[in-house]
TrEMBL record:
Membership in a protein family: Belongs to the IL-6 superfamily.
Keywords: Cytokine, Glycoprotein, Secreted, Signal
GO cellular component: CNTFR-CLCF1 complex; CRLF-CLCF1 complex; extracellular space
Protein name per UniProt: Cardiotrophin-like cytokine factor 1
Pfam families referenced in this protein's UniProt entry, alphabetically: PRF
Organism: Ramphastos sulfuratus
InterPro entries, sorted: 4_helix_cytokine-like_core, PRF/CT
Claim: Nucleotidyltransferase is one of the keywords in the record: no
Subcellular locations according to the entry: Secreted
Assembly behavior: Forms a heteromeric complex with cardiotrophin-like cytokine CRLF1/CLF-1; the CRLF1-CLCF1 complex is a ligand for the ciliary neurotrophic factor receptor/CNTFR. The CRLF1-CLCF1 heterodimer binds SORL1 (via N-terminal ectodomain); within this complex, the interaction is mediated predominantly by the CRLF1 moiety. The tripartite signaling complex formed by CRLF1, CLCF1 and CNTFR also binds SORL1.
Length: 221
């Protein structure tokens, strides 16, 4: 009947007008976690793209042999201060989500300190600009990882996260070794970002977006 149809239409209009006040529309904590993980994943991919351009520019600034495609030197003891991403993949995947997130947080915090030192030493305005922009993006990644850990209920790693500076090792003894330090910094950063993208891609599959349901309550009908 026409009267019943009009009543249903009136009910739906009244319910839709009151949607903003319904508690069921609030985003759940799970949805926030999923979005945070997605944002962090997107940021790692963006940094990978940025680093390809930055590394090429910086290695050209260092000159031969560092900008040669087949240059693959052995890792020196000095470079061990830079956090290494060369961990067996099966061993890495066997870690808990908390352990991997903590390792990522510590590594990028230290790498960021080294990159900021490069920023102050770069010899051209263009290179300083690129390094400064990359450092800002990497700082955003550190904060984003901290946000993911917090949303999952994990504590941030305790203790200092900056690079250690043992006596006598803060400055390279010659220009070639200083360039070698810079080369390994960029190489390790590239590997960390590649692996982190895989980490966060797997993590976002574990925390799927929450399904938001609408509950319409009849008021006065």
């Amino acid at each position: 009947p026409a009267g019943d149809s009009w009543g249903i239409f009136t009910f739906l209009c009244a319910a839709l007008c009151n949607l903003p006040a319904l508690p069921a529309l609030n985003c759940s904590e799970e949805l926030g976690t999923s979005q945070s993980i997605q944002k962090t994943y997107d940021l790692t991919r963006y940094l990978e793209h940025q680093l390809r351009t930055l590394a090429g520019t910086y290695l050209n600034y260092l000159g031969p042999p560092f900008n040669e495609p087949d240059f693959n030197p052995p890792r020196l003891a000095r470079a061990e201060r830079v956090p290494s991403a060369t961990v067996d993949l099966d061993l890495w995947r066997g870690l808990t989500d908390n352990a991997r997130l903590a390792a990522n947080y510590r590594a990028y915090s230290r790498l960021l300190c080294y990159l900021r030192a490069l920023d102050g030493q770069a010899g051209t305005a263009e290179l300083r600009h690129r390094l400064g922009h990359f450092c800002s993006s990497l700082q955003g990644l550190v904060l984003s990882i901290a946000g993911v850990m917090s949303s999952l209920g994990y504590p941030l790693p305790a203790g200092p996260v900056g690079p250690p500076a043992p006596p006598g090792t803060a400055v390279a003894p010659n220009d070639f070794l200083k360039k070698m330090d810079d080369f390994w910094l960029l190489k390790e950063l590239q590997t960390w970002l590649w692996r982190s993208a895989k980490d966060f891609n797997r993590l976002k599959k574990k925390v799927p977006p929450a399904v938001v349901t609408l509950r319409l309550e009849a008021r006065g009908f």
